[in-house]
Design brief:
This protein is mainly alpha-helical. It folds into four domains: about 70 residues, no CATH class; about 110 residues, no CATH class; about 70 residues, no CATH class; about 80 residues. It is built from 16 helices and two strands. It has a two-stranded antiparallel ribbon. A hairpin with a 5-residue loop joins strand 1 and strand 2. The chain is elongated.
Length: about 375
């Protein structure tokens, strides 16, 4: 697996969507490692049963839910509810080393911490859940803790083992994730960097003057008009001179204050949506646009999806389109294909074409400023085509 230092080493422009694709590909490799670990557990432990005596608070069938039953007067044993201490962690590790020696399983506790049961049934009697419960129960031996407490400790302590200062490579990865996937940036970064989410939140706060805002604006013509007028005011530029421009961060921060949003969200709205709607001056069929993009990609020397340089692809399209708009339009056709980032590009494009056949007919919604200086929808003659 490629190291973090090399992940974006060949990326000069972090705004290029292919940078995000490289990170997603790296994330797929992590998931593959975790899945292989789970397969190894199933192979070695599928038939194993818990034969040692367990205290009542470790007999719960689910390790992912807190224990509901409380200790009563009839039961002398109780369990601790404070934070797991250093000595307890040492015992967990001791149990782990005994487990891997006895059953010959990979020494990858981080995989147990990271593995997510997304594709399988979560019922307690499924093979994956039974094996995971067996492992966690083995690690809980000798501890006055519930299985849930042990499992949560493993997820938190070993799922994010990287501590200390952030490297330059890590911060480059953070900038790319926050740029392209602001809603899921922290979750993605936690898995890619191997750090705890709370630490990533703090670092994002230092880098971006505040962590990503959760709420999203439901854009309409009135709000888009307000946004456009403020953008022209803060840049001092007329409408036509906003086309294909990069604006200073100060402009975006001012807009962020006005809309009570992080500026990254507003950048996304501008470059992914409103810029195209304003400056594309024709009736455009979305399906036809996608077909053209896919044909260009197919005829290119690119080998896999993450090779694509969308700033080069956009040069084949009329003025007004942005590479980010085109990237998202095409990615929506392929992201459901398993391992699309690694498969031969011809296979991925073929999958996209098959999805196009089932897609509904849509046109690009374009807008313009009217005489009252308000945005209004543009309706083109349906007989005209792009």
């Amino acid at each position: 697996m490629m190291g973090l230092e090399d992940l974006l080493s060949e990326c000069d422009d972090l705004n290029e969507p292919s940078c995000m694709d490289k990170i997603l590909m790296y994330l797929e490799e992590i998931k593959e490692e975790d899945d292989m670990f789970m397969e190894a557990l199933l192979d070695k432990l599928r038939a194993e049963e818990i034969t040692w005596e367990q205290p009542w608070y470790q007999q719960n069938t689910s390790i992912s839910r807190p224990l509901k039953e409380r200790c009563d007067n009839k039961k002398e044993e109780t369990y601790r509810t404070d934070t797991i201490c250093k000595e307890e962690n040492k015992l967990i590790l001791k149990n782990w080393h005994e487990l891997i020696a006895e059953y010959d399983i990979p020494d990858k506790l981080i995989c147990l911490a990271r593995w997510k049961n997304k594709d399988k049934s979560r019922l307690p009697n499924t093979p994956e859940e039974r094996v995971r419960r067996f492992v966690v129960s083995y690690l809980a031996r000798g501890l006055q803790r519930t299985s849930f407490q042990i499992f949560r400790h493993i997820q938190t302590y070993y799922g994010g083992p990287v501590k200390g200062h952030y490297s330059e490579a890590e911060e480059r990865i953070m900038k790319v994730c926050f740029k392209h996937h602001p809603n899921n940036a922290v979750v993605l970064l936690s898995m890619v960097l191997g750090r705890e989410p709370r630490g990533i939140y703090k670092r994002l706060q230092q880098l971006y003057n505040g962590k990503p805002v959760k709420k999203r604006i439901k854009w309409n013509l009135d709000l888009a008009t307000k946004f456009l007028k403020l953008l022209m005011k803060y840049t001092g530029l007329p409408l036509e001179e906003l086309k294909n421009r990069r604006f200073d961060k100060e402009v975006w921060l001012k807009l962020g204050k006005k809309f009570d949003q992080h500026y990254i969200y507003l950048q996304s709205f501008w470059y992914d949506s409103l810029h195209v709607q304003l400056f594309v001056k024709s009736s455009v069929k979305i399906k036809k646009l996608r077909k053209k993009a896919l044909k260009i990609i197919l005829e290119s020397p690119y080998q896999i999806w993450s090779d694509i340089r969308w700033k080069d692809v956009i040069k084949h399209f009329p003025d007004g389109f942005t590479h980010r708009f085109l990237y998202k339009l095409c990615r929506n056709l392929v992201y459901k294909k398993r391992k699309y980032l690694k498969r031969p590009l011809a296979d991925v494009v073929s999958f996209a074409f098959s999805n196009l056949k089932n897609g509904r007919k849509r046109r690009l919604r374009t807008v313009r400023l009217n005489e009252q200086n308000e945005l209004e929808a543009v309706v083109y003659n349906k007989l005209r085509t792009d």
